[in-house]
User: What shape does this take?
Amino acid sequence: MDTKLLVEQAKLRFAHQIATDYLQNKYQSKLIVAEQQGLWKIDINLIAFLESVNTEFVVMIDQYKVPVRVNTQQMLEVCKNRYHTVMDEWYTEYKKLENKR
Assistant: This one.
């Protein structure tokens, strides 16, 4: 193989990796939400926990390590809506990036 071709392919892979890392950082930051006097990082674990709670209120530790009493159903709705919106946007943008490859 030609050295120039190898260098070009390496540069393309590197640029692609930088772009995917950028997307991850961009959309991970959109999954942080201030809600019910706390700061929360929304992920599948948080959503699953909220779905499993059988009480109206639950005390959880937020990103600042502060205990916060939250309304379970309201928090679940906020988390699910934000999670689905952000993940759909991330997927769409990632697919565009993959198609450029």
Summary: Residues 3-100 form one domain. The first strand starts at residue 32 and ends at 35.
